[in-house]
Structure formats: C-alpha cells, structure tokens
Amino acid sequence: MDLDMNNKNLKDEFENLNKDDPDFSKKCSKLIKDINEGLCTILQLTEQLKGLLVDPVPVNREIGVHVLTMVLEEISHERISVAQINVMCDFYADKLKDHHQIIPATLRGILALLSFNNVPDGQLRKLLDSLFKNVPCQQQQQHDRLNIYKILKKSLENSAAELLEMDMDFVYGVMSAVDGERDPRNLLFLFHWLPIFLRQCNLGHLREEMFEVLACYFPIDFRTPPQDSNSISRSTLASSLSDCLCATPDFAEYCLPLALEKLSSSLHIAKFDSLDILVGERL
C-alpha cells in the first residue's frame, strides 16, 4: 500500500474489510511502518482516513477510528509532536460524543494518547470532561469499562496536579464511573487502584457518598468458579476491598460502624471480613 498523502483516500482500502481479516492488520502495520520511517505523519493519516471518520454510517466511522487507534498504539513516541498530540486529543474528545459503536476504539485511542509523555496542559481535563459527560460507564461492555478505569488511573499517574485542580468534578466523575460495577475483573482492578485515588484526592462533601459506593460490596459475596485455578478468589477481592475502605481517614467515621455491624452477622464471611478491618491494623 503506497501512501501518496496528496491524493490517497484510505476509505477504499478499509471499508470492505473485516477487522479480523489478516489484510486489515497488514494494512495497519504498513501505516505504522510508514509513520515510523517518516514517510507520513499521524495528522496526514487522519486526513486520509477522513472518508471513513466522517462517514454517515457508524460502522465505517468505527473502522476509521479503529485504524487510527491501532496506529497510535504502535507508532514510535518520537514520531508524534506535542502539536500533533494536541490535535489528536481534540479529535478523541469529540469522538466520545459519537455513536456508541465508536466508543470502544475511542477509549483505546485515549489510552494510547496517555502513553505519550507530552500531552499538552489542559487536554487531559478536556478528555475527562468529555468522558464523564458523554459515556455512561456502567452502560458499556466489561472491557470498555475496564479501559475507562485505566484511563482514570493513567490520568492520575500522569497529571495529578491538573486533576486535583478539577476538584470535585474529578472525584464525582470517578465515583459515578465505578458505581454499580459488578464484574470481578474490573472490581479487582478498582480495588487495587482506588486506595491511591482516595489518598491523593480530597473527597470533600462527597466522602460519605464515595464510601457508600464501596461499602455496598462489603462483605464480598463471590464464589470462585470450580476448577478454574486462574480465577479471582473471594479472599483476594475481600482483602483488596478492605484496603479501599480503610484507605483514608475520611472513611473512619463510616468504616468502624460498618465493621461492628457486620461483626454481629450470622454470615461467617461477614464476621471474618469485619475482623480483618478491626484487628488487621487497618483502622
């Protein structure tokens, strides 16, 4: 596939291909190679994908975003400038408003952008504002919800100061995203990350509401599927949840009564988990 950036329209290359087709991956690999070798830029590629990206049919727009995301995930970091990242952040923030079919590839694209170390000031907030406003987390598929949580985690790792300036907007956005999560894979990811979030962010007037979002899981009611040695265990989830409930002094006034209440439960797991909080040097 010879990319003549003056007249090439990549819609013709991709619109009739299934994403699982080997030719699809080969064409994406060629695009990645061309950018890494300096034959074109990510912005030129975006222009050549325009026929797909603005197509009135959602499945074609999804293909366009999928191609762009696959390229972003693999190109060398030296081949994308701050100015180009700025444009791509604007693009992906806008794509979060698009049809639900486009959202999975868009989330992956944002994760790819966050892997670069030179995201311009202000763009992270723009991405998160659009994410919180346009993508109801719990209405997404399991893996897409996980990618949202990864975006939140990566954002805090990369730009804690910028997110802390968002104050309650970020806290409320995180709380709303995780509220109602039921998948054990996602919960384990959250229970490992949320203690960091809780220690870094001022919960303010949302501290009780944030506690209740987590307390609804206590005690963990989960059975490991039989004969699945790679599955998540109840004890792992329970221990990680306890870390969340005891992660910040803001939760102390709510956590102690909860543990004492569950200690009198007839359920053995509730007693054990309560004791873990009360005598496990957590409080």
UniProtKB/TrEMBL annotation:
DNA damage as UniProt keyword: yes
Signal sequence segment: none
Gene Ontology process terms (BP): DNA repair; iron-sulfur cluster assembly; protein maturation
Pfam families membership: MMS19_N (PF14500)
TM region(s), chain numbering: none
Protein's cellular compartments: Cytoplasm, Cytoskeleton, Spindle; Nucleus
InterPro entries in the record: ARM-type_fold, MMS19, MMS19_N
Keywords: Cytoplasm, Cytoskeleton, DNA damage, DNA repair, Nucleus
Function recorded in the entry: Key component of the cytosolic iron-sulfur protein assembly (CIA) complex, a multiprotein complex that mediates the incorporation of iron-sulfur cluster into apoproteins specifically involved in DNA metabolism and genomic integrity. In the CIA complex, MMS19 acts as an adapter between early-acting CIA components and a subset of cellular target iron-sulfur proteins.
Subunit comment: Component of the CIA complex.
Name of the protein in question: MMS19 nucleotide excision repair protein
